[in-house]
Amino acid sequence: MPNATRSTALSAILLLCATTAQAFDARLETTAGDDLKAQIKAASAVLEAADTDVTAPEEIIAAVQSDYRNLIGALYREGYYGPSISIRVDGQEGAAMSLISLPSSIQNVVISVTPGPRFVFGTARIAPLAPGTELPEGFVSGEVAHSNLIADASDAAIDSWRAASHAKAELADQSIVADHRDETLDAELTIDPGPAVTFGELHFAGKTTVRDDRLRRIANLPTGSDYSPEKLALVTKRLQKTGTFRSITLREAAELNSDNSLDITATLVDEKTRRLGFGAELSSLEGGTLSAYWMHRNITDNADRLRFEGEVAGLGSTTGVDATLSASYRRPATVTRKTTLVLGATIEHLDEPDYLSDSGQFTLGFEVETSPNSTFSAGLGYRYSEVEDDLGSRSFSHVILPIDGSRDTRDNALNPTSGSYFEAEILPFIGVGDSASGTRLFADGRAYRAFGGDDRFTLAARLQLGSIVWADYTEVPPDMLFFSGGGGTVRGQPYQSLGVDLGGGDETGGASFLGFSGELRTKVKGNISVVGFYDLGGIGTSALPGEDAEWHAGAGLGLRYNTGFGPIRFDLAGPVSGDTGDGVQIYIGIGQAF
């Protein structure tokens, strides 16, 4: 063997031997049951150090000495207040070892835990309580004395007082006594509610170019009204909604003013002024969709926003390519503190299976915050479109009055597991010239419920309703009518494959739509979930959804990978009923289907 090779091999052997010599063995000896044993293992820094091949003696001893506190905390949380804990390092009790004079190596660590008896609450009392306070269910005499329940009860009492306008409520005193003879724990807590508080002035700090008077108008802190954490959270939400700020922190003053009012300081940091974004979706039949936007935040130092968006859809499909270009301007706290001015303009080219349309639209409207989770908007606009379909070449000219309301209580818009979402749109259109007048109605309701251990399962349901009233569907632009099929309605059926049969092979959209979608989402492992779904859609010629309708349905399976900002979605679906399509369709995108 050459000298260089022999030297390299020898070095590797010596390094391996050194590493082996420094490795240590850690084991747990306990009389605890399986569940408690698992809690002890999860709390142990020593066992974690052994699993991650920590070898430095100072790190091992630090883990040993922290484990006395860690393990006692784990046992107290489970109601064991008389434990015996010994941690021996190469036969020596770890608590007696010094971090100054350490051994050169450590071979083994033995953790011995005797939990002792499990305690129950003897006395579990906290006072005074605000009306309507809900304490943790287990904080009751005779129940297992989990230590975390004491802190939870204190937090619940303080939060209730704060919700009742006592912003400076705090824990004034506590007495916690373990009686080892009776194996009980007495916990008595005293809350100091402090005085009832009103909102004082709102001050600003941080790095922002938005003027203070505009910030106060947007935030709309109700100075002089009763203090409420919900109202304070709403201030944060209003500032977030502008999209102007990277970070928003509200801090309550340490002391009350002489009139028991409480000043608030908002520390704001502006987001980058400009932003460019992109998106993509793919369907085996509808083709690919590419989208992009450019946004200018705080364009006039009023927390206003200018945004341009473009989208090209139907790439690679047999249905034609659609293109949309739009622009919008939003200025919060205009006219009233809760009103956002919205200007919008859109030009659109649609090459759909049953029609070809070129349209343009301009609207001026206002969006109003009606509650923390609800918004209402109304506007006035003009819409012009030129259409080619099975009814001929036509042009439409309308004055429109779009009205929209929504309520969103979902826990996460891209991956909801609880709550609901509802949106209703009313679009009166007044014909100019020969164009007909009428109203388009549409509603979209969604609900979510998680169940099972660790909320492993989520049941999601969606109901969509659409209707054209006071106008015949043959007199309405086809892009305002209703079709069914594709990713937004019935997966597994071709895009917009279900409409109204005019006879002779001619088709157009319907006067009404009724759609239902149901999903069962199941967590499999880590960030991976599977989904089973069923979609149903019906198109009718009357204004009443479901009346004299033609139906089709689709079903399939999907795979989700949660990225943190939203799941990547992959769905396979096929037709279940109806004669509008066959074969398997593929859908790929970001976020749940609904």
Low-confidence runs of at least 5 consecutive residues: 1-22
Q: Residue-averaged pLDDT, rounded?
A: 93
Tell me the major beta sheet.
17 strands, antiparallel
Strand tally, please? Answer: 29
Principal-axes shape call = globular
Supply the number of helical segments. Answer: 7
Distance between the termini: 67 Å
What Rg is obtained from the alpha carbons, in whole angstroms? 33 Å
In short:
The protein is of the alpha+beta class.
Protein architecture, described:
The protein is α+β, with helices and mostly antiparallel strands and 594 residues long. It contains seven helices and 29 strands. It has helices at 3-22, 34-43, 45-51, 57-77, 147-163, 212-219, 229-241; strands spanning 25-30, 84-89, 92-93, 108-114, 120-127, 170-179, 184-192, 198-207, 245-252, 261-270, 274-283, 287-297, 305-315, 322-331, 339-352, 355-371, 374-389, 392-400, 403-408, 419-431, 438-451, 457-469, 500-503, 506-508, 512-525, 528-540, 549-562, 567-577, 585-590. The strands form five sheets. It has a 17-stranded antiparallel β-sheet that branches. Strands 1-4-2-3 form a four-stranded mixed β-sheet, covered by helices on one side. Strand 20 (419-431) and strand 21 (438-451) form a beta hairpin. It is globular and about 95 Å long. The model is unreliable at 1-22 (pLDDT under 50).
Task: Give the arrangement of secondary structure elements.
Layout: H1 3-22, E1 25-30, H2 34-43, H3 45-51, H4 57-77, E2 84-89, E3 92-93, E4 108-114, E5 120-127, H5 147-163, E6 170-179, E7 184-192, E8 198-207, H6 212-219, H7 229-241, E9 245-252, E10 261-270, E11 274-283, E12 287-297, E13 305-315, E14 322-331, E15 339-352, E16 355-371, E17 374-389, E18 392-400, E19 403-408, E20 419-431, E21 438-451, E22 457-469, E23 500-503, E24 506-508, E25 512-525, E26 528-540, E27 549-562, E28 567-577, E29 585-590
Parallel strand pairs: 1-4, 5-7, 8-10
Antiparallel strand pairs: 2-3, 2-4, 6-7, 9-10, 11-12, 11-29, 12-13, 13-14, 14-15, 15-16, 16-17, 17-18, 17-19, 18-20, 19-20, 20-21, 21-22, 22-25, 23-24, 25-26, 26-27, 27-28, 28-29
Helix pairs in contact: 2-4
